[in-house]
Structures are given as structure tokens and as C-alpha cells.
Amino acid sequence: SKSEGKGQYRFYDASLHESLKSKAHLKQSLFDAIAEEQFVLYYQPRVDTQTGRLCSMEALVRWIHPKRGLVPPLEFIPLAEATGLIQPLGRLVINMACAQLSAWQARGIPLVPISINVSPSQFSHGEIHCHLAEEIEKAGISASLLEVEITESAMMGDQAEIMAELSAIRDLGIKLHIDDFGTGYSSLSQLQRLKMDVLKVDKAFTSELTNSRDGKVFFQAIVSMAHALGMTVVAEGVETAEQMAMLQSLSCDEVQGYFIARPMPAHDIEPLLARPARY
Ligand code: C2E
Ligand code: CA
Ligand code: CA
Ligand code: CA
């Protein structure tokens, strides 16, 4: 009835108002947090599947919220992307990773590259390679110590713009990763054109590996395709010994996941750098 409709509308309006208010509030606190640099990078090891050698570590941002403690990225990255705050936040992440490498370098600690996640909107503004170059120079580190991860879906936008930015990053000597592979719709020809160095298979496919015969066949096909295109294959979200054994038998090059190690603060990953051991 009409009155019900009106009531629903009023109710909806009120909750919408609340949610807009809390969104505006979250946006403001995220803005302040960036200005105050209330963030920390956690690092997750990525290791060679056959030898267990540490190849690289992925930087995963956390917000150190004054009241809530450590806030995971999925609670603020989407808002940062929607509001444009991902630009200054992304710059802060690059800055923190370079500063960390520089500090370790000064202490004579053996280094492996840090891979950084880059959002589509950071990417399409075309300044990211400039910022990477500046931060590398400022930190006095080799560009080969940084890697950049871009999701498969991020590469669906303006092809000319994306290709230009990708090659500018590559020209700096930075390796490029396709992240969350298998969740988007890249064609073979696109993969060949983009000339990415590393293909990270989404964790959904890692969990299917030991669940079904199809899961194994699918993974095997990805490995063959990636190798044919000269790419290194990384399995994400490796959680069990069974998955690990399967990935070894499928010639997947590198692995990352809780089975090896969880993301951890810089201080905790130092022993793994100083003494590159098996997992
Ligand atoms: P991602 O790039 O796919 O990162 C992998 C996520 O999987 C991380 O979650 C990691 O902690 C988690 N993970 C690692 N191993 C396992 C495992 O064995 N099992 C399971 N279930 N999960 C595992 P996290 O740290 O919460 O990050 C979530 C997402 O937030 C990232 O997904 C990435 O898309 C985004 N993100 C993180 N840091 C940044 C950043 O600095 N910039 C941008 N733009 N995005 C970031
Ligand atoms: Ca990633
Ligand atoms: Ca991923
Ligand atoms: Ca993801």
C-alpha cells in the first residue's frame, strides 16, 4: 500500500543518511590517517617451490587505528579507491617500502625485492612510474628491489594508457606481476602483449587444486601457458602440505601462503633475510 511505501521510504532515507554520514566520517578519518602516516607494512614471504629459498616479499598495508588497532586493507582500500585517497596512500606505501629497503641496506642485511600492490586508479593517473623513480632515487636503492602487482581486472581499462604506464615501469627495471589471475578475463593475446614477468594465480584456484581433478587440470594449464609466454608462476594462498606437494609436482615456480608464513612486521621477517633458509 501507499502508506507502507512511504514508511519504507522514510526508513530507507534515514539509514541511507546514517550510512552516508558514517562514510563521510570514515573518509575524513582515512584522510587524517594518511596525513599522520598511521600505516604500517606487513611482509609475506614468497619462496621458490623446489628449494624454499626466499624470492621476494609482498608488502600488505595495515592501518594502525588509534582506537581500533590494526585494520585490514579490505576495510579501507575500497573506500580509498572510491574517494581518490588511494593516490596519497599509494605514494605512502611506496615510500614506506623504499625506506625499509634503504634501512636494511644501511645495516648490511641481504635483500630480496619487495612487491607492492597498485590499484587501478593509481595506475590510470600515469604518475606512478614517476613516483617510483623518485622514491628509488631518494632511498638510494636498486630499482630491481621493487616489484609491482596489478590485478588482472585493472588491465581491462584504456589499453594504450595501460601499456604506456606498464612499459614506463618496466623501463625502470621493475618486474611486473599480474595479481589474482583467473578472476578476470584476460585473453591469451592480451597476456602476450602486456609482457608481464610474473603471474600470480588467485588463491581460489589454489584451494581447488586438491579438491577436484578439474582444479588440478586447470592449474596445470595455467602453468604451461605462463611458461610458454616466459612468465614465472606463483601460487597464492597455499595453506596445506597437500597443496604444496601438488604445486611442486606441477612445476609451479613460487609459492606464497599461510603454509609458508603469514604476513608479518618488518622486524619479524629480518631473520629470514639475514639467513635465507628453507621454510
Ligand atoms: P592480495 O594482493 O591478493 O594479497 C593477498 C591477501 O591474501 C593478503 O590479505 C594476505 O594476507 C592474504 N593471504 C596470504 N596468504 C594466505 C593464505 O594462505 N590463505 C588466505 N586465506 N589468505 C592469505 P590482506 O593483507 O588482507 O590484503 C587484502 C588485499 O588488500 C590484497 O589482496 C590487496 O588487493 C589489497 N592491498 C593490500 N595492501 C595494499 C596496498 O598497499 N595497496 C593496494 N592498492 N592494495 C593493497
Ligand atoms: Ca597482491
Ligand atoms: Ca592476489
Ligand atoms: Ca586480491
From TrEMBL:
<feature type="domain" description="EAL">
    <location>
        <begin position="23"/>
        <end position="277"/>
    </location>
</feature>
<protein>
    <submittedName>
        <fullName>Diguanylate cyclase (GGDEF) domain-containing protein</fullName>
    </submittedName>
</protein>
